[in-house]
Design goal:
The structure holds 3 protein chains of 3 kinds.
Chain A: E1 6-11, H1 15-26, E2 32-37, H2 40-47, E3 64-67, H3 76-85, E4 94-98, H4 103-111, E5 116-119, H5 124-141
Parallel strand pairs in A: 1-2, 1-3, 3-4, 4-5
Chain B: H1 9-26, H2 33-45, E1 50-57, E2 67-68, E3 71-72, E4 98-105, E5 108-117, H3 120-123, H4 127-174, E6 178-183, E7 188-191, H5 193-203, H6 213-216, H7 221-235, E8 240-246, E9 254-264, E10 270-279, H8 281-335, H9 338-368, E11 376-379, H10 380-390, H11 392-398, E12 401-404, E13 410-413, H12 415-431, E14 440-448, E15 451-458, H13 488-498, E16 503-506, E17 514-519
Chain C: E1 14-16, E2 23-25, E3 29-34, H1 37-53, E4 57-62, H2 67-76, E5 87-91, H3 92-96, H4 104-120, E6 126-131, H5 145-158, E7 161-168, H6 174-183, E8 186-189, E9 192-195, H7 202-210
Parallel strand pairs in C: 3-7, 3-8, 4-5, 4-6, 6-7
Antiparallel strand pairs in C: 1-2, 8-9
Classes of the chains: A alpha/beta, B alpha+beta, C alpha/beta.
């Protein structure tokens, strides 16, 4: 619903990259709540409200998931597959955000029903632009049921 | 019966003619030209008007009559001057006194029948008969000569065949391939020493040419059935090659490439079969080695690809960080936000460090694949003690108790690398001890299925079974917050593999400790294997 | 064909030779000069068989084969051999040189006795055949063989024993063969019996023979 901050679940193992995303989305004009987990297992635990994430108050359902591919414990593609094959969560848009530009990863991601595939730009201005656009697109423009 | 009166000239005429004529019919009984001559000479000498007779037979291995070497004994002239067509050879003078009848046929010239005449008047009426006798004699000589020539040719041919057979026999004999032939009655006919010796070695039988296969292999029914099948196919006209193993003991096994083909006569019917066997044990071994190497190379190539992919990936990440935070830094410097500036610089430095560490580890991994130091002998115990003293500080810090198993194993390899294996494993165990009152690490080895398996066991935080396979992957860190780049175990794996071994981890689950097992077949001295 | 004999014409019967259709008077003296063993056996076998079939008393003097071998050979070609008296096979050397030496007169005597005995025993005729190779063994007196052969011709007039003398051309010299021809009135050539144009009257031959250096 418009007005309420959109919950973004960021699954990213690199703390520096997580910081970049955080800073950018912070300055985004669309309200959002960023939740960061560092590995694939934690991501699954979060959506399933298990372990540390059993309290719905502290673990709100994400409106969009930003997913890196190279993750410890459970790999990004596996997380994607699990999310998309579970009817409970398959409707949550998953946007891949990764350094990998390889065709293989891209094909695999789309085959597993990723909603979008973004490559982290090395260039600073480009990254902030990307995230700003992301913010607008997925948070403001993109419609989704609650 | 009476003979006709001898003094009637007419009667003598017929008798003499009869003698000359019947002599032609009798000549064939004589076994040699010499006896023919001995028969003819007195006979013809008895012809009225004839003084003496001689024969000169050429074209014999030992010419008889007037020939002695290169000169004629009758006239002492050279044979070259004796012409076949001349009616007066030998330069014999007095044409009226000597008659020389050439013994010749369409096929050739065989000599002369020479008659010295006493009385021309008396002799002349018998001359035609003597000439006929000469012709008959020539034919007989020709027959004999042709037969002799044919016999000589036959003998020559037989000699040649014998010689060629012996030569071929030598060729077959000199070959180290196992060569044997069999006739259509399943009897071994020709075979070389290589075949015979191998046959004796494998079946314990001294094979002789002509032995039947049924009899020779009666005591080994399985081998017999197989041999029967193969030879049978060849005798049925098939041409084929098979590979087969011989020998009992594992060390004795030899591979042979056996080629079977039928032997056909000029009409194309199969009259036998031939088998050529070549020992290819070495070749098989080389092929197996090559396959193994090829697989290894493929494996290594795949690993390298994975490595390059991962490395380039993991180097890109810190680069993203550096560039972006430089951007932020610029902004924050302009804004004068001191706190943020410090934070930005932390991230940048962190990323730069990470890149450096990654690069270092990559180099380390590459080096781990090469054994640079010459191999030395060191006992496992010595290695363990060395490593324990190196990481003593860390062990004390973590408060870990280390126990070492008993027993002696002698290792022969790169001491530094082998120590690195233990060190990395110890480091790893210490790192993942978790919070517990009695952290323990056990180091030792045990025999398992004929090989020595080394282990480093801890009672730390253990591993989720789902993750156990990934733990040796490059840059795989199950816990991103733990220190290090995650390359330690990859290095250990590399070193172990270079020593021909393999490494794996067993853990009952999270919180239940973990044990790393590895083998070093190329470094363990066989004599000391598994002594406990 | 058959010449007039000095003996009484009606006394000389005609006999079968076995290997030829023609019949010849008993006492015909033939030489067989051969080079092929098969040919020899064929002719001699038939000769002996026809004699046995005619009920003649037959004697064989063997040298190249043993008496038993001869019996075997004859049985093999299907000849039924009667009792010993009717058909005797003896060793040629022993027969011709009974005293260890060859004496023509002795042998001529033996031959005469043979004929007389056959007649006494009731045989219509008698025939003999001998393998003459025994003469090549160098037995003393064997050089007088031709004398003997020449003289037989006179004996056979009064004691007509049909005889074939076997000479192996591969073993006797050519000159000897010529002499053999001179002393046999008939010869067997290509399975036929023909007059021997070389034949000389015994006295003429002996004069010639003994006059040689």
């Amino acid at each position: 619903m418009k007005g309420e901050p959109v919950v973004i679940l960021l699954v990213e193992d690199d703390l520096a990259h997580a910081e970049i995303v955080r800073r950018n989305l912070e300055s985004c004009r669309v309200a959002n709540q960023l939740i960061h987990v560092s590995d694939g297992q934690a991501a699954l635990n979060y959506v399933n409200r298990q372990g540390d994430y059993s309290d719905p108050a502290t673990s709100p359902r994400p409106g969009v998931i930003l997913l890196d591919l190279r993750l410890p414990k459970v790999d990004g593609l596996e997380v994607l597959q699990r999310l998309k094959s579970d009817p409970q969560f398959s409707s949550i848009p998953v946007v891949i955000l990764t350094t990998s530009q390889t065709e293989y990863d891209m094909v695999k991601a789309y085959a597993l029903h990723a909603n979008s595939y973004l490559v982290k730009p090395v260039d600073f201005s480009q990254f902030s632009q990307l995230l700003e656009t992301f913010g607008y697109y997925w948070l403001a423009w993109n419609q989704h049921p609650h | 019966m009476n003979t006709p009166p001898a003094d009637t000239s007419e009667g003598m005429d017929f008798r003499v003619i009869g003698q000359i004529v019947s002599a032609s019919g009798l000549l064939h009984v004589f076994p040699s030209e010499t006896e023919m001559g001995n028969f003819l000479v007195p006979l013809l000498t008895g012809v009225p008007g004839c003084q003496s007779t001689s024969v000169c037979f050429r074209k014999l291995a030992q010419p008889i009559g007037g020939v002695r070497g290169e000169t004629c004994s009758l006239c002492a002239r050279s044979l070259a001057q004796c012409s076949e067509t001349s009616p007066y050879p030998c330069g014999l003078v007095e044409p009226g006194k000597v008659r020389a009848y050439p013994l010749e046929t369409a096929g050739g010239f065989y000599g002369h029948l020479i008659v010295r005449i006493a009385s021309q008047r008396e002799y002349v009426r018998y001359e035609p008969f003597v000439q006929n006798l000469g012709n008959a004699l020539a034919i007989i000589l020709e027959n004999r000569w042709q037969q002799a020539a044919m016999q000589a040719a036959k003998e020559n041919l037989e000699q040649l065949v014998k010689k060629r057979t012996a030569e071929l026999g030598k060729v077959i004999e000199s070959s180290r391939d196992l060569i044997a032939t069999m006739d259509s009655d399943h009897r071994y006919m020709v075979f070389n020493s290589a075949f015979h010796d191998e046959f004796q070695k494998v079946y314990g039988r001294d094979l002789k040419p002509g032995d039947s296969m049924t009899e020779a292999l009666a005591h080994v029914p399985d081998a017999f059935a197989q041999s029967w099948k193969y030879w049978g196919c060849a005798l049925a006209g098939e041409d084929f090659t098979i590979c087969q193993e011989f020998g009992d003991a594992p060390l004795d096994r030899q591979w042979y490439e056996l080629h079977f083909s039928p032997i056909r006569d000029s009409a194309g019917h199969v009259i036998g079969a031939v088998h050529v066997g070549r020992e290819i044990t070495e070749r098989k071994r080389a092929e197996a080695e090559m396959r193994k190497s090829s697989l290894e190379i493929q494996h290594k190539n795949a690993e390298l690809e994975r490595f390059l992919y991962t490395a380039s990936h993991d180097l890109k990440s810190p680069l993203v960080t550096v560039r972006n935070f430089l951007g932020y830094l610029e902004q924050d410097l302009a804004a004068g936000a001191a706190g943020k500036i410090a934070e930005d610089m932390d991230f940048i430095l962190g990323a730069a460090d990470k890149m450096r560490r990654l690069l270092d580890d990559v180099l380390e991994l590459a080096r781990a694949g090469c054994i640079v130091a010459p191999p030395v002998r060191v006992t496992f115990r010595q290695l363990v003690d060395e490593v324990l003293s190196t990481v003593a500080g860390r062990i004390a810090e973590c408060g870990v108790t280390v126990t070492v198993g008993d027993g002696e194993v002698v290792l022969f390899g790169d001491r530094v690398r082998l120590a690195e294996v233990l060190q990395n494993l110890l480091d790893n165990s210490c790192k993942f001890m978790g919070d517990q009152p009695a952290p323990r690490i056990e180091i030792g080895f045990e025999p398992r299925a004929g090989e020595t398996v080394f282990f480093v066991r801890d009672n730390g935080i253990g591993l989720d079974p789902r993750h156990q396979g990934k733990v040796f992957g490059l840059f795989e860190k199950l816990d991103p917050r733990a220190e290090g780049t995650g390359i330690g175990l990859a290095i250990v794996k590399r070193i172990v593999e270079v020593h021909g071994g393999r490494i794996w981890v067993e853990s009952p689950g999270v919180g239940k400790g973990a044990a790393f097992f590895f083998t070093l077949p190329d470094a363990v001295e066989p004599t000391s294997q598994g002594e406990k | 064909m058959a010449q007039t004999q000095t003996g009484s014409r009606s006394e000389i019967p005609m006999t079968q030779m076995g290997f030829t259709q023609e019949t010849f008077p008993a006492g015909t003296h033939m030489c067989l000069i051969y080079s092929q063993e098969a040919e020899r056996r064929n002719i001699i076998g038939k000769f002996l068989e026809s004699g046995l079939l005619a009920g003649e008393k037959v004697a064989y003097f063997a040298d190249t084969l043993s008496p038993d071998e001869v019996r075997g050979w004859l049985r093999d070609i299907g000849i039924e051999l009667p009792d010993v008296d009717g058909f005797s096979i003896s060793d040629a050397t022993k027969t011709y040189c009974s005293s260890g030496e060859f004496v023509p007169e002795t042998m001529l005597d033996t031959l005469r006795k043979f004929y007389r005995q056959a007649k006494e025993e009731g045989y219509p005729n008698a025939r003999v055949s001998g393998e003459m190779s025994w003469a090549l063994k160098g037995i003393p007196g064997s050089d007088r063989l031709m004398e003997y052969e020449a003289l037989i011709n006179e004996i056979l007039i009064t004691h007509p024993v049909t005889a074939i003398c076997q000479y192996d051309a591969s073993r006797f010299s050519g000159a000897t063969i010529l002499d053999v021809l001179k002393v046999h009135p008939m010869m067997v050539v290509h399975g036929q019996i023909v007059h021997n144009p070389f034949y000389m009257r015994p006295r003429d031959f002996l004069k010639d023979f003994q006059g040689r250096p």
